[in-house]
Design brief:
The structure holds two protein chains of two kinds. Chain A contains twelve helices and nine strands. Chain A is α/β, with parallel strands linked by helices. In chain B, strand 2, helix 2 and strand 3 form a beta-alpha-beta unit. Classes of the chains: A alpha/beta, B alpha/beta.
Chain lengths: 314, 203
């Protein structure tokens, strides 16, 4: 039994992660139809509450909701009254009065989706909160690996980049480990959180060692403002030491696949040629993202004050 | 009524099954019913070329495949077989709670202007057939739709007619009727059992 909310991969059991991924694989078929719409969430309301701008994730959730026939309402910080004195919880409660069946929340501060979930009746789906978690991005990465490799159990996954500030890294560490993969991280030492080993991952100082024998390399987006300061001396030095290019991939498995949550800083964390054509990843990440979010909405949307109907199809 | 061997009560005491599972149609009975239904399909449809067999998972799929084999041997028609999951079209997915697992959908050819024969294992309320028809319409505009059910157990709640029935089995509402194969799969040999509902999990 899943919990009401999807706040992070950390909270999920292995079988729950697997159920989401299996559901997403089925949802991909809907995206291949001429009529890319099913009536599953007809009459239901999905609110996308984005306090931090993100075109890709927002559009992905919007399309996913619409393909399930939900009514989708987008609130982003530039359009609503968030710049006024109204607090986040007030805003969320106002939206809750509209009886949404799911609220998707993105915020730059870790823990905000949880606070909102505690205040609302509707299920909350975390679309990224600070450096905490970004569960649907990690599930999308897992879906892509599952599609390309046929399994996750037993694979070696190397995560390269700013682990300290990355919610994608945290969610992927939890997710891939729950499904039986070995997870390694590599970054300049200031970008590796102290005590990362307690999550069960191995931290490597050099890219070559981390990538050695890897089946999957997840390259994180580097925030440029973090490159000009305390963490690394310069962009050039970061690119030379931790930028992933074809030469670095020589040490990985021959059939290695390279993932990046996008958008790519070309020539920084990922070389130009790899940014254009990432090895192994043939499937369209955007399409996968919509299918994955359809699965999440299918499994989580629904108000707890509306009990399931008795005597349905058996 | 199709004749079938008297296995119904013998099975009750079989050590391999829980005591409450009662076999109402065995493998031979299922095969005979599907051959008879194939004859009825040939009789009712002048041209078999436009026929498209679509199985509703999980139970409808092996039955649709067997019907395709039968129709090929009877009339030489090589028929397309599709798989159509109805879960996303169910009418009971409101509120919170565990969602049923999605099954495979594979519709290898177009539905437009075809005579679609939906194949399900057990017909009851008619809600699955309603969902299957809605799903089908999302794939195109069939010339007509006909429905096969291996078992019709009654309790109809919607004005749905089953065109081809393998066997009518009167049941209580709290019983379950299940098509099952070898060791939890849907591989032949298949059998249809009636189970007491207690602790039964809807799949």
């Amino acid at each position: 039994m899943m919990g009401r909310d999807l706040l992070g991969i950390e909270d999920l059991e292995r079988h729950e992660v697997e159920k989401i991924l299996e559901t997403a694989q089925r949802m991909q078929e809907v995206g291949q139809r001429d009529v890319k719409k099913v009536p599953t969430l007809r009459g239901r309301t999905l609110i996308n509450l984005f306090f931090e701008s993100s075109t890709r994730t927002l559009i992905s959730f919007e399309i996913a909701g619409k393909r399930l026939s939900a009514d989708v309402v987008n609130f982003s910080s530039t359009r609503s009254s968030l710049k006024k004195a109204e607090t986040i919880l007030d805003t969320a409660k106002t939206l809750d009065a509209m009886d949404p069946d799911a609220v998707v929340v993105r915020h730059s501060v870790a823990g905000v989706p949880k606070r909102i979930a505690d205040a609302l009746d509707a299920p909350v789906i975390n679309a990224g909160d600070g450096a905490h978690e970004h569960p649907t991005q990690a599930l999308l990465d897992m879906l892509t690996v599952l599609e390309e490799k046929g399994r996750i159990d037993g694979l070696t996954v190397a995560i390269v980049g700013d682990i300290l500030h990355s919610r994608v890294a945290r969610s992927n560490i939890y997710g891939f480990q729950k499904l039986g993969a070995e997870v390694r991280v590599v970054a300049p030492p200031p970008m590796i959180p102290i005590g990362i080993e307690t999550l069960g991952v191995k931290a490597f100082p050099s890219l070559r060692e981390a990538i050695d024998g890897a089946d999957v390399v997840i390259v994180l987006r580097i925030q440029r403002e973090r490159l000009e300061g305390a963490y690394v001396p310069s962009i050039r030095e970061y690119a030379a030491t931790f930028g992933v290019d074809r030469a670095a991939l020589r040490f990985a498995k021959d059939d290695v696949i390279v993932l990046h949550p996008g958008p790519v800083n070309r020539g920084v964390e990922l070389s130009h040629d790899l940014a254009d054509r990432r090895p192994g990843v043939i499937l369209d990440q955007v399409r996968n993202g919509v299918a994955l979010r359809m699965a999440v909405l299918y499994l989580f949307a629904g108000r707890p004050d509306r009990p399931p109907r008795e005597g349905g199809i058996t | 009524m199709t004749s079938h061997p008297p296995t119904e009560n013998q099975a009750t005491g079989a050590p391999t099954r829980p005591a409450e599972a009662r076999v109402v149609l065995d493998d031979i009975g299922i095969r005979r019913a599907l051959m008879r239904i194939a004859h009825e399909i040939v009789e009712r449809n002048d041209e078999l070329d436009g026929l498209y067999l679509v199985g509703v998972p999980n139970g409808g799929v092996p039955l649709a495949r067997e019907l395709a084999v039968n129709l090929e041997s009877l009339a030489g028609a090589k028929l397309a077989v599709g798989i159509l999951d109805t879960t996303l079209y169910r009418d009971d997915l409101v509120g919170s709670g565990e969602r049923p697992a999605l099954r495979r959908t594979e519709m290898p050819s177009a539905v437009d202007d075809r005579i679609v024969v939906l194949v399900d294992d057990v017909a009851s309320t008619g809600r699955t057939v309603r969902a299957a028809m809605d799903a089908l319409m999302d794939f195109g505009r069939p010339r007509s739709v006909q429905v096969v059910a291996l078992i019709d157990r009654g309790h109809r709640e919607l004005p749905i007619r089953i065109d081809y029935v393998g066997k009518n089995i009167p049941t209580n509402r709290d019983e379950r009727v299940k098509l099952r194969g070898v060791e939890g799969t849907l591989d032949w040999p298949l059998e249809v059992v009636v189970l007491a509902r207690e602790g039964g999990v809807t799949e």
